[in-house]
Specification:
Elements: E1 4-7, H1 9-16, H2 20-34, E2 42-47, E3 50-55, E4 58-65, E5 68-76, H3 84-96
Parallel strand pairs: 1-5
Antiparallel strand pairs: 2-3, 3-4, 4-5
């Protein structure tokens, strides 16, 4: 199945702050997900339908609804746990969509 990625404004802004190399790695993994490859990029289930794409020290929070992958948050991982506010934001968007 082919998917379409939708990046929330905050995710786009975050990606804009990264180096071209890091941004390229993340974009490459997003393209793999869009093409239905959920084995190659490293993803992890967080809570229910909420998942995270892991690229080095960076995390992108997402969920899939229909054929669209919604990326709701992104951050640089600094601790062992994913911030609750990131998961809550993704759950809120999931309920709204």
């Amino acid at each position: 199945m082919i998917y379409k990625a939708f990046l929330m404004r905050a995710v786009e802004s975050f990606l804009g702050t990264l180096s071209p190399a890091n941004r390229g790695q993340i974009r490459a993994d997003i393209v793999l997900l869009e093409n239905g490859d959920f084995q190659t990029p490293y993803t992890k289930k967080l809570k229910g339908v909420i998942r995270e794409l892991i690229v080095g020290n960076y995390r992108l929070i997402f969920f899939i609804k229909g054929s669209i992958i919604y990326f709701t948050g992104a951050f640089r991982k600094k601790s062992a746990k994913t911030p609750i506010k990131e998961i809550s934001r993704a759950e809120k968007y999931y309920k709204l969509i």
